[in-house]
Design goal:
The protein is α/β, with parallel strands linked by helices and 565 residues long. It has helices spanning 2-11, 55-64, 113-129, 146-154, 158-163, 185-194, 224-233, 256-259, 263-273, 276-284, 291-294, 348-351, 362-369, 387-393, 424-434, 453-461, 474-482, 544-552, 555-564, and strands at 39-41, 49-51, 82-87, 90-95, 99-104, 138-141, 199-202, 218-221, 246-247, 253-254, 333-341, 412-415, 420-423, 438-441, 464-469, 486-490, 506-509, 520-526, 532-539. It has two domains: 42-277, Aconitase, domain 3; 333-352 and 394-564, Alpha-Beta Barrel (Aconitase, domain 4), CATH 3.20.19. A hairpin with a 4-residue loop joins strand 12 and strand 13 (420-423). Helix 3 (113-129) crosses helix 9 and helix 13 packs antiparallel against helix 14. The radius of gyration is 27 Å and the shape is globular.
Length: 565
């Protein structure tokens, strides 16, 4: 196999020699390596880079920055709030920036031995210095595979990581997707009581609002070694270049530079501990190496799944209810109401969260009504096979801000024309009972983040027929088309604000069966006093195939009709 790969690469010109001509590139990007510095990303988006040396400055700026600009908008009085946490007969103070979660997660970094062994070496040196993790920090280690655990063990680094609380909790999606589990009650009480902007530091790749944990408002992405460092510091309101992590057992301050491993230490650990046979052994028995999985009874397979009516995990989805073989022509959307009016950078986590299920929102209430206690809720991600839960959780992020309710956080909206505030799901059910189609208004980069299919599925099941936005994230736009939801984009720099649209209007979208890819149409929004606002939008059905998918009512309907036909 190695010889085959070598031969293939040589045939493709991937084995250059001294005689190989210099390749010709379409574009050349130059990077000044002196500008590359240790950094984190946060507190609310993964592309907002924060140099390590500027963490304190940037976090303090975020505390007073308006929420509309991805800050926390604290008042001057709120900035000095703190809470006392009792532990082992003493108390420790928690302030804004207190790290309540520090997680080395299974994605992004754990296939990189240099950073995983680096994290272990940081932990080892910290333990030798006598440093401890702050008592309010929940720590966890989710290796990317059993191989990672094995080379950490071989390097003697599992023990120091565990001594700091970084115990192996499993292999798979954990904190990054919201599966960190509950925090200690006393920590929650301290955070809630003082209304603290507490933080999470994790080595994952997503930190959208409400994703990591309901009580970690500031979420930073960092390398595994820095995750360990911030667990020791206990706060993100710190400059680790100049301030100590803590005090060592000798009474002297310990700085990050004192426990940071040298490159040659990491290289030596890799050479000593990472061996090819580890991968061969662990991956070679991947289908037999999990006794718990192998012990699950599996009966004889049947052609059709035997749906259990009382299951809160798996239900037959309603995508094909009332489906006929006849394809209806594309027609206008008339008399639509706005379900939500949103701002910029609405993520798929805002639209369809994957983490904790709030007990006081429709999905949680549904589970309680079906005999599930809050401690057994699990997560939205675990219940994605149940449309009853997932539809109730759509636009159910605790941090989503619907402008129809003045930017209030949570799954709330206004039901028109009554003007009554209610949950998004409840309003949707009322609109559908009345036969009223729905639209969503939003700003730039709508649907950014994870390519979450339920963000489109849930939108469809809520009765949303179109999303009118300033711009779409590429994959979410495609997913909306796949579920038969029409993506529309404002033109000429216009948006809901510039057009004076507040979301109380009735919308008419003229469509005909000869709809073309990228066609422009004129949308009419009629206000309560009869005033009309007409504005152009571009239909973001980008290809003839997408037009055909939309005509069918989505890719699922199209596939079934073609299979039957």
């Amino acid at each position: 196999e190695v010889a085959l790969v070598e031969a293939y690469c040589k045939a493709q010109g991937h084995f250059p020699t001294a005689d190989t001509p210099d390749p010709i590139f379409t574009d050349v990007l130059e990077l000044d390596m002196s500008t590359v510095v240790p950094s984190l990303a946060g507190p609310k988006l993964p592309h907002i880079r924060v140099p390590l040396s500027q963490m304190r400055e940037k976090f303090q700026d975020a505390l007073v920055t308006p929420k509309a600009q991805r800050g926390f908008e604290l008042s001057a009085d709120a900035l000095n709030k703190s809470a006392k946490l009792g532990t082992n007969g003493s108390s420790v103070e928690m302030k804004h920036g207190a790290v309540i979660i520090a997680a080395i997660t299974s994605c992004t970094n754990t296939s990189n031995p240099s950073v995983m062994l680096g994290a272990g070496l940081v932990a080892k040196k910290a333990v030798e210095k006598g440093l401890k993790v702050k008592p309010y920090v929940k720590t966890s280690l989710a290796p990317g595979s059993q191989v990672v655990t094995e080379y950490l063990q071989h390097a003697g680094l599992v023990e120091p990581l565990a001594e700091l609380g970084f115990n192996v909790v499993g292999y798979g999606c954990t904190t990054c997707i919201g599966n960190s589990g509950p925090l200690p009650a006393e920590v929650v009480q301290a955070v809630q009581g003082a209304d603290l902007v507490s933080a999470a530091v994790l080595s994952g790749n997503r930190n959208f609002e409400g994703r990591v944990h309901p009580y970690s408002l500031a979420n930073y992405l960092a390398s595994p070694p820095l995750v360990v460092a911030f667990a020791l510091a206990g706060t993100v309101d710190i400059n680790l270049d100049t301030e100590p992590l803590g005090v060592g057992k000798d009474g002297e301050p310990v700085y990050l530079r004192d426990i940071w491993p040298a490159p040659e230490e990491i290289r030596a650990a890799i050479a000593e501990s990472v061996r090819p046979e580890m991968f061969i052994e662990k991956y070679g028995n991947v289908f037999d190496g999990n006794p718990a999985w192998n012990a699950i009874p599996a009966g004889d397979s049947k052609e059709l799944y035997n749906w259990a009516a009382d299951s809160t995990y798996i239900q037959e989805p309603p995508y094909f209810e009332n489906l006929t073989l006849t394809v209806k022509p594309i027609s206008a959307i008339r008399g639509a109401r706005v379900l939500l009016k949103l701002g910029d950078n609405v993520t798929t986590d805002h639209i369809s969260p994957a983490g904790a299920i709030p007990a006081n929102f429709p999905a949680g209430k549904f589970l309680i009504a079906n005999g599930v206690t809050p401690r057994d809720f699990n997560s939205f991600g675990a219940r994605r096979g149940n449309d009853r839960v997932m539809t109730r959780g759509t636009f159910g992020n605790i941090r989503i801000k619907n402008q129809l309710v003045g930017g209030k956080e949570g799954s709330y909206t206004i039901k028109f024309p009554e003007g009554v505030e209610t949950f998004v799901y409840e309003a949707s059910m009322q609109y559908q009972a009345e036969g009223t189609p729905l639209v969503v208004l939003a700003g730039k980069e709508y649907g950014t983040g994870s390519s979450r299919d339920w963000a489109a599925k849930g939108t469809f099941l809520l009765g949303v027929k179109a999303a009118i936005v300033e711009s779409f994230e590429r994959i979410h736009r495609s997913n909306l088309v796949g579920m038969g939801v029409l993506p529309l984009v404002f033109q000429n720099g216009q948006n809901a604000a510039s057009l004076g649209l507040d979301g109380s209007e009735v919308y008419d979208i003229p469509l005909t069966d000869d709809l073309q890819p990228g066609q422009d149409v004129e949308v009419t929004a009629t206000k309560a006093d009869g005033t009309q606002v007409t504005f152009p939008v571009t239909v973001r059905l980008d290809t003839p195939v997408e037009v055909q998918i939309y005509r069918h009512g989505g890719i699922l309907h199209k596939a079934i009709r073609e299979m039957v036909g």
